[in-house]
Give the backbone structure.
Amino acid sequence: MEKPGGGGVLSAKEAFEKLEKVGEGTYGKVYRAREKATGKIVALKKTRLHEDEEGVPPTTLREVSILRMLSRDPHVVRLMDVKQGQNKEGKTVLYLVFEYMDTDLKKFIRSFRQTGQTVPPQTIKSLMYQLCKGVAFCHGHGILHRDLKPHNLLMDPKTMMLKIADLGLARAFTVPIKKYTHEILTLWYRAPEVLLGATHYSMAVDIWSVGCIFAELVTKQALFPGDSELQQLLHIFRLLGTPNEDVWPGVSKLMNWHEYPQWNPQSLSTAVPSLDELGLDLLSQMLKYEPSKRISAKKAMEHAYFDDLDKRHL
Amino acid sequence: MAPSFDFASSLLCTEDSAVFDESHNNGGTMMSMMGVYEDTWSPRKRHFDEEPDELPLLSDESLAMMVEKECQHWPGLRCLNKLQTGDLDFGARMEAVDWILKVRSHFGYCSRSSLVIQNYLDRFLCAYELPKGRVWTMQLLAVACLSLAAKLDETEVPLSLDLQVGESKFLFEAKTIQRMELLVLSTLKWRMQAITPFTFLDYFLCKINDDQSPLRSSIMRSIQLISSTARGIDFLEFKPSEIAAAVAMYVMGETQTVDTGKATSFLIQHVEKERLLKCVKMIQELSCNSGSAKDSSASVTCLPQSPIGVLDALCFSYKSDDTNAGSSVNSSHNSPVAKRRKLNKTCGADLL
């Protein structure tokens, strides 16, 4: 790691040639860049530290420290370095240097939607297995991602490798996780217990997101595309039935609970018609209302849906 | 000085406010002790609306991974040696630790936070040489470590000005703290997911209780003991898993609910038996308030037992004045308007 003010060490600006801006991360811009010394293509996530603000942003701190803990899992994006530099106005800037991935799952699904083709079933199976494996790895290290969505799942379209990225909202759950307010989490992949104001998260919130992504890979459309928290809940209730104390003990005591229209559960096959029986079973276990009943990522990897998948290179 | 754990509770700020209430009602001593602090800062405890959900326990594999990884975050014997030989300023560290405990209490952070902060502090001190003779650098380091821990784990991060509550001689600007934060982060290689005894505690308590959830009182007692190990330096020689195992064994043994031999045979699958037993013995001494005779200049494992002891501890604040002339890091020097008169001229000598 480069020390501040170290003489003779290339600054981040000198070490890399920015090629193009490829996005906005949780905090700051992301560039495709070439490392001049090696010619290697990397992703640079730039975070400016405003001196009138409160130092290193919490999202950057969490992302880096968590990625330090999760280093070298093939299904979590690799953080290669953290460099400190200064921009033109002399302000301190941090550059997170990541391995570069050509695309993400959101773009991947969109490309199939545009051509009218379906994603090949074995491709779906492979991507889902890798996702479960990456999530199992995070959970095994006591890390919740909390913002799993297609945009945060990077892909190499040549090898069909998938990697989990953007851990700026991730949390260690080996400490009591307190209530979070004013969280800006993508609605479509948000677990019902979060929407209903549960004050404590568990690993199950990530599994719900995985289930939503699974369905989206099959249909190329979001499973629950709500545009407000209430609409998000109603989308869920229309398909899975309005929950009650029988299917989800404790649900009526959650903070945001009130009277909702009463829907009966529909079969998942109505929402994901082309998924086979084993896939539907796995999906249903990912979308259980009661968080403790939701399948774990590790158990999901063992599900029969993946039996015929060649896992040797995954 | 024998510590009072009622007093420890009020300072170490156990998560359960009911415990604090009980301590508070234990008599005039506690009332008068709390009165000591009213003029300088007001502890503000957050109250949780609901019973916390049970945490997901670490799986057996996760436990093994954490034990393997904890050495990356453990200051260890190297740090202990530096403190004992005087390479590190023991007194300044003690002062920083005391300040951390007070601020943590003020903001109502859970006990784990203070261990995380101290983990950062000790790892940094082992890896980086702060300029000698400038006591403000230790204070700045403590502020930066507190700020980083708050950002990492807490949902509400106070402004850097508000972080500097309590009786501190220096008040640092946000940009100064930022620069120290970056120095700490690069020195620790951004490995900030500190593994502390709390990482392992629930797992061990549950396992030696035949996979049943332990009593809440056992959890609170364990939290109290772990927090108490942090103030002195004696426990620095033990890894977090060893401290957690020893505390779990001691607490469950104390309640007579488990077979000690059975607990030992389980725990030594994860920690070395000799070190476990040594640590249990030290926990026992800490708990019984009867530490064996120790060189008081080398370590302090007891908390002040009386208001006079508290005031003695506060005397650290007035040991020396320092100027920041020529410093490479800017700071705002904020002297107390009315300097508190020293109660005991020898308080520093007694402890250093």
User: Anything to note?
Assistant: Residues 103-306 of chain A form a domain with the Transferase(Phosphotransferase); domain 1 fold (CATH 1.10.510.10). Confidence is low (pLDDT under 50) at residues 1-9, 179-183 of chain A. Chain A has two domains: 13-99, 103-306.
